[in-house]
């Protein structure tokens, strides 16, 4: 500890932390002390990854936690208050905190005083089912008009409401209301033994199965003092990159189809099918369900490694060709360049992450910021434009990089991927006991950015709180900013270039 309320950064810059918080340990300060420490860290250039709180019913006590990322690794700052307490909001000075403070207020009743945008995030608790009461921002003017899109959309798409304020075709303001898919995932994680939640974790965000499963099970394993063996970590890293490739290619297909570029869109879909079919051949499911289980992962023997490498080589050859076709079309360039620009310093100030941040020049990738010493990581790739074109090109480059990285690892004879198979706990089986009075957390760079799973235990090692966070939570606000000054007809391609998750926001 470096002071009341603070957990020092990790010396090894690990993506997983386990912090003991036993009774009497000086781990929590007041809300004001907590806020002050966070502000000092942000002023020094550390990055806010999350703010969340844990109630202690039936008492009104609330423990609040901040997770930050600095050059030395992850840092946890804790504070304590009671329901209804206030503290000076961070958001006016540090806009990256705005969505986390709103969520904290909605879930715990701790009030960030003078918050500039204190509105419900998911309509949790007493607000459940009151989505129709959302207080939209409004503007007045004889030539202004509002356009509502959703929450029900054409085709098979998740629900979300987009409220535009326009002057003619020009968007002055976009406000995004989500929460229609709130499922209470964090509460569900407390209702069964934690080692039997694999199916639930894999279904939280259906296109990020590996990222969520990896973060959840790694947290559990470290809380159980059962860190995964090297071969298991290597297998999970392979799965994560296969998932990244498949989803990036899916987004590229959607972007091409939005331009009626059917040839490119169909080619991308064919290539994605090859990747997810390879995943199915290894674990039995095209989206990677079953690849990761407590203490284990899908094994890759010599023949399977060779077959996967062959698939990736064929994929890469065709992928490079279709990328060249798309990038050299003047019609694609004309439609994407200069559209939906998110210029610096907005991505940093808003706390955006993943592809969205890197396409605006922010070199933030947890694979390199918190690398696994066993597997290493590709260097962060950035694009300077911050527009739809930059987001498309970045996905192309990251996919190629991930493919080359996988081919190198699969060809490394010294790398053991033939690990113990996934273990599915049986009813009545003995689960690993968890450390008492401890906070365990893991962050994984998923396809959209950092996926966070934090679990806290009580005096007997039972789970007393679970926090799950998708990168879409903060990145949706970036989409709203990118639409300002654009034509309303630009919304579909901007929305697709961000490719955010509705259900990821609504966990």
Descriptive labels:
507 residues; alpha+beta; Beta Polymerase, domain 2; 2 domains; five-stranded mixed sheet; 18% strand; globular
**What can be said about the biggest beta sheet?**
5 strands, mixed
Write the CATH architecture name of the largest domain.
Answer: Orthogonal Bundle
Which class of the largest domain in CATH terms?
Answer: Mainly Alpha
Q: Report the strand count.
A: 16
Could you tell me the radius of gyration in angstroms? 22 Å
Q: What is the overall silhouette?
A: globular
Helix content: 25-40%
- Judged by helices, strands and strand pairing, the structural class is alpha+beta
CATH fold-level assignment of the largest domain: Cytochrome-c3 Hydrogenase, chain B
Number of domains: 2
Low-confidence sequence ranges: 1-5, 8-12
Question: Describe it for me?
Answer:
The protein has 507 residues and is α+β, with helices and mostly antiparallel strands. The protein has 2 domains: 1-124, Beta Polymerase, domain 2; 185-505, Cytochrome-c3 Hydrogenase, chain B. It has 16 helices and 16 strands. It has helices spanning 31-43, 98-108, 185-188, 198-202, 209-223, 230-258, 262-283, 302-327, 330-336, 346-349, 354-358, 366-369, 388-410, 472-482, 491-498, 502-505; strands spanning 6-7, 16-20, 29-30, 47-55, 61-70, 73-82, 86-88, 111-113, 144-149, 161-167, 170-177, 292-293, 296-297, 438-445, 450-457, 463-469. The strands form 5 sheets. Strands 1, 3, 4, 5 and 6 form a 5-stranded mixed sheet that branches. Strands 2-14-15-16 form a 4-stranded antiparallel sheet. Helix 8 (302-327) packs antiparallel against helix 13 (388-410) and helix 13 (388-410) runs parallel beside helix 15 (491-498). The radius of gyration is 22 Å and the shape is globular. It starts with 5 loop residues before the first strand and ends with a helix. The model is unreliable at 1-5 and 8-12 (pLDDT under 50).
């Amino acid at each position: 500890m470096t002071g009341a309320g603070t957990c020092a950064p990790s010396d090894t810059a690990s993506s997983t932390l386990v912090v003991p918080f036993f009774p009497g340990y000086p781990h929590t300060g007041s809300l004001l002390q907590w806020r002050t420490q966070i502000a000092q860290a942000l002023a020094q250039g550390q990055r806010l990854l999350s703010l969340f709180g844990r109630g202690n019913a039936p008492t009104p006590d609330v423990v609040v936690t901040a997770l930050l990322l600095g050059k030395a690794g992850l840092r946890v700052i804790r504070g304590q208050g009671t329901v209804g307490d206030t503290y000076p909001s961070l958001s006016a000075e540090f806009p990256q905190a705005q969505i986390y403070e709103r969520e904290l207020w909605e879930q715990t009743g701790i009030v960030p005083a003078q918050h500039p945008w204190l509105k419900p995030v998911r309509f949790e608790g007493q607000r459940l089912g009151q989505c129709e009461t959302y207080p939209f921002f409004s503007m007045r003017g004889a030539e202004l008009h509002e356009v509502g899109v959703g929450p029900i959309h054409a085709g098979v798409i998740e629900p979300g409401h987009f409220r535009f304020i326009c002057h003619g075709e020009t968007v002055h303001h976009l406000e995004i209301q989500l929460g229609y898919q709130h499922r209470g995932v964090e509460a569900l994680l407390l209702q069964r033994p934690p080692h039997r939640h694999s199916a639930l974790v894999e279904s939280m965000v259906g296109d990020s199965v590996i990222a969520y499963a990896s973060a959840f099970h790694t947290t559990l394993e470290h809380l159980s003092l059962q860190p995964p063996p090297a071969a298991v970590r290597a297998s999970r890293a392979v799965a994560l990159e296969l998932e990244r490739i498949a989803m990036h290619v899916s987004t590229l297909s959607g972007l091409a189809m939005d331009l009626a570029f059917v040839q490119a869109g169909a080619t991308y879909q064919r290539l994605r099918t090859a990747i997810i079919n390879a995943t199915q051949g290894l674990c039995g499911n095209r989206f990677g369900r079953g690849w990761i289980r407590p203490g284990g992962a899908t094994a890759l023997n010599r023949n399977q490694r060779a077959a996967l490498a062959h698939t990736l080589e064929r994929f890469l050859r065709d992928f490079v060709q279709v990328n060249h076709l798309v990038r050299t079309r003047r019609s694609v360039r004309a439609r994407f360049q200069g559209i939906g620009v998110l210029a610096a310093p907005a991505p940093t100030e808003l706390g955006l992450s993943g592809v969205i941040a890197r396409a605006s020049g922010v070199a933030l990738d947890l694979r390199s910021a918190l690398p696994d010493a066993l597997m290493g990581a590709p260097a962060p790739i950035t694009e300077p434009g911050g527009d739809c074109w930059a987001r498309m090109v970045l996905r192309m480059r990251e996919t190629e990089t991930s493919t080359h990285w996988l081919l190198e690892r699969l060809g490394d004879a010294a790398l053991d991927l033939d690990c113990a198979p996934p273990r599915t706990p049986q009813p009545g089986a003995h689960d690993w006991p968890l450390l008492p009075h401890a906070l365990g957390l893991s962050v994984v760079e998923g396809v959209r950015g950092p996926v966070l799973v934090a679990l806290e235990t009580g005096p007997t090692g039972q789970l007393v709180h679970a926090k799950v966070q998708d990168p879409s939570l903060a990145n949706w606000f970036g989409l709203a900013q990118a639409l300002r000054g654009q034509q309303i007809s630009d919304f579909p391609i901007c929305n697709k270039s961000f490719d955010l998750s509705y259900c990821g926001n609504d966990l």
